[in-house]
Amino acid sequence: xxxxxxxxxxxxxxxxxxxxxxxxxxxxxxxxxxxxxxxxxxxxxxxxxxxxxxxxxxxxxxxxxxxxxxxxxxxxxxxxxxxxxxxxxxxxxxxxxxxxxxxxxxxxxxxxxxxxxxxxxxxxxxxxxxxxxxxxxxxxxxxxxxxxxxxxxxxxxxxxxxxxxxxxxxxxxxxxxxxxxxxxxxxxxxxxxxxxxxxxxxxxxxxxxxxxxxxxxxxxxxxxxxxxxxxxxxxxxxxxxxxxxxxxxxxxxxxxxxxxxxxxxxxxxxxxxxxxxxxxxxxxxxxxxxxxxxxxxxxxxxxxxxxxxxxxxxxxxxxxxxxxxxxxxxxxxxxxxxxxxxxxxxxxxxxxxxxxxxxxxxxxxxxxxxxxxxxxxxxxxxxxxxxxxxxxxxxxxxxxxxxxxxxxxxxxxxxxxxxxxxxxxxxxxxxxxxxxxxxxxxxxxxxxxxxxxxxxxxxxxxxxxxxxxxxxxxxxxxxxxxxxxxxxxxxxxxxxxxxxxxxxxxxxxxxxxxxxxxxxxxxxxxxxxxxxxxxxxxxxxxxxxxxxxxxxxxxxxxxxxxxxxxxxxxxxxxxxxxxxxxxxxxxxxxxxxxxxxxxxxxxxxxxxxxxxxxxxxxxxxxxxxxxxxxxxxxxxxxxxxxxxxxxxxxxxxxxxxxxxxxxxxxxxxxxxxxxxxxxxxxxxxxxxxxxxxxxxxxxxxxxxxxxxxxxxxxxxxxxxxxxxxxxxxxxxxxxxxxxxxxxxxxx
Length: 747
Known about the structure:
Strand content: 15-25%
Number of helices: 18
Radius of gyration: 26 Å
Oligomer: single chain
């Protein structure tokens, strides 16, 4: 019997034992909720045998299709992401893991779970509304719990360094402050259900091409002030129980055995108390991984070897991995379980789910995340007394698109469109059965709504020419493990939109995409609505925005370039045909990601970061700034000068006058304000102090330079002077968490 089979057999026996919830047969002080999570983890660890400890650091895949899977773990929930057996005699439950950030996903299965899907992560980020991010997280966390899961592999926050990245739709855009706060609140919402959430993929997993072998090259300070800062903010805001290390290498070593990332930055500098789990198939060693900070091998069937099974046991026996380090691996897992309530609140896979209420959460998120990019001559909102509406393309008569891969949530009622390619991983391509055509008809009951597939552009143009209103749907499917070859809409959709817009200049384009796309037809169209992947009730959300039942208030979380030539790497590194090749990606832009790169190079984007129009207008006044008690507070007034109610995202950017930053300005804060026509509101923002500082690498301190700083209140990153003032700031030294160091501390 081989080592892996013996390990799995022990798991099966342990899973068959009854779980003792109390202390009837013997005292179990670690089950006392009055003790701290650290105390409880220490007590439980002391009672464990070496074999029981080994169970915690080795995870199994829950579905059947993993490579090299030798035995089915009956205790694992079917079609799930993973399973880690508990210790029944100690009253410690197993860990049941589910993907991902948009809802409870099912891995490939003939009988997938049908669950509520949030809109894409980019859509949630586009709301600029942390409260909505929390509510969405709480909703999917509740569905995870009701489905029997106590670990959710959610909290994706890799910055959008390349708009072609196939997983951008899972993440939250290009700015560390916006991404960190929004994803941090989502994680906090998930964990409100006594479910462990993660932050991932740690770190620099910024493209899918060659993701298992590429070496992300970047300076330590640049990494800490961009991608790592976003993840640090998620940890500070959401306190996730786990961090998932990435597939790729970072400055040489693999992320899951990278001592600088895991031991120095995460555990030492940030003080992270939870555990590091690997991505599925991201482990490459036993001794190096364990000693350099990995605590748990996840989905071990995807790795070349069961590194944390018998090999780890042997490494501890020989001293290659110390007993103290091994115990710390287990302690961190137990700490997270106690800290997040996993032990005190056991899950059962039969909880009731209020799909109607959860669908509403998804719809509200989708509505507030849609971005009105263009609205010439106020063609939107559409009049409800319109006579003829032509709806063209995008399977809009059947549903709305979603992204592929491990975050794919299978729709309630099944996919609305069958037979699309790819049919297998990272597919199948799935459409949520919320048809925009149906919902448009409901809001314009007197209209004749005619749908055309768009397969024949000439026929679609003829239909458009005779319609009072024309809506063309453009779609771009992307998914995990693949990057988009470019930013053009596939399948000749650009030609379709151009033909339709030439036939009817009042054409409205609705985009269901996983990120930025090029728009060669932009000047021909009257309006463009960025709907992202809008989730379970996306068709309804789109219709409500088009007809003005909802005033659009989304703002872009990422820059839309005019061409690939404007990107730091116009040609994507690596070869999609050779995914296992080893190569380096030089992140020469450093921390100048997204709008910062465009500012630095003086590129004019198609649409700037933060851009978003409304059916009303807003004005700013009374901008003032005061540095007091070590904090910069900024005050201003927002007024709705239009005729309808709406929500504005007032964005504060800071630009140093004397100090040198990675780019001319940074986002320093924002507020989303809901105003009635003619209403004004005074807003006060406290600026995140690290947004004013430069990181000193050797001392690991943030330093605010004494001098003048320009505060810019704008509606997007392209705004330079809608309202701006100068403020004087004193010199200040901060720790890595942005807290002021005492004046007598010398670094």
